[in-house]
Amino acid sequence: MTSRKQASTLVGILFIMATLLASLGLLIVDPILASPNYLALANTNSNIIVLGSLLILLMAGACVGIAVAIYPIFKPYSQTWAVAYVASRTLEAATFLIVAMAWLLLLPLSAEFAQASTPDNSHFQTMGMLLLAFDQTTFTIGAELVFGVNALIVNYVFYQAKLVPNYISIWGFVSGILLLISGTLNLFGIDITSLEFALTMPIAINEMVLAVWLIIKGFHLTPNIPISN
Question: How many domains would you assign to the chain?
């Protein structure tokens, strides 16, 4: 009972940490990367880029921590889904590691850009745009596609094992589908500005509701009946 409650509390805290770390990292770095002068700004705000990268790396660690903490809870019901969730969360963390590396690679490029005699006519802008495009694509894969799959896995097990209230797991499963739709449309370059809030906010709110529930109530005590794989 004690270890089960500790696991649920840890999972809830890690869900909140992952969301806060990612949000803060994007909040401080996005204004730099979205600026037409992003190379010059990256050079003069290198500490912000480094801090944002560190926050994203910590968030990646929290993602893996969630799966590791939840593994012994899922295992009695389905070892296959328990392993799948760890693998999927690890893949998500790997994509964010790549995003952080792309941000950090902008720093030497921006330093060279600042020292170039004719930066406007150099290859720096092209290299910078490639890095930003790589960063955006990788972020879409990790934050929407892989994360969407994570939501489907975890909420499927939650629902089948009755570990949390059904409304939370159904809400999370549907939100995962919406996130997959958003990621797919973004990956194909379809403008979904008017739909993005509706497609991404349900999972964000669901995770916070789930986190608070796990911290306060913990996982339901249910028979360890295997679920279908």
Answer: 1
Q: Report the alpha-carbon angle 208-210-214, nearest 5.
A: 120
pLDDT digits (tens, 9 = 90+) for 149-187: 999 999 999 999 999 999 999 999 999 999 999 999 999
Q: Report helix, strand or coil for 224.
A: coil
DSSP output for 101-155: HHHHHHHHHHHHHHH-SSGGGSSHHHHHHHHHHHHHHHHHIIIIIIHHHHHHHHH
Confidence of residue 66 (pLDDT cuts 50, 70, 90): very high
Cα 70 to Cα 10, 27, 73, distances in angstroms: 9, 29, 5
Map tokens 């840890």 to a residue. 10
Q: Domain range spanning residue 204?
A: 2-216
Residue 206: inside a domain, yes or no?
Answer: yes
pTM reported for the whole predicted model: 0.92
Name, in order, each residue with C-beta under 8 angstroms of 129's C-beta and a sequence gap of 6 or more: none
Q: CA 101, CA 19: separation in Å to the nearest integer? A: 20
In terms of Cα–Cα distance, which of 148, 133, 140 is closest to 96?
140
